């Protein structure tokens, strides 16, 4: 194979890492965001609204309609 015909489906970088190592790195980022004050913490109202929207989206996907 030439360089142009390389297998592009091979996983590289973060995607190629062991899932446990990926979680460790992501966890470090989350902790850093909380320490710096940049992490968003949902209020119960925001969480309720997000759950409602997710439920509507899932229902819309299953039923095949685009109703709001």
UniProtKB/TrEMBL annotation:
Pfam annotation, one family: KGG
InterPro entries linked to this entry: Stress-induced_KGG_rpt (IPR019626)
Domain of life: Bacteria
Basic and acidic residues composition-biased segments: 1-10, 43-52
Region (Disordered): 1-68
Entry protein name: Stress-induced protein
Organism annotation: Deinococcus carri
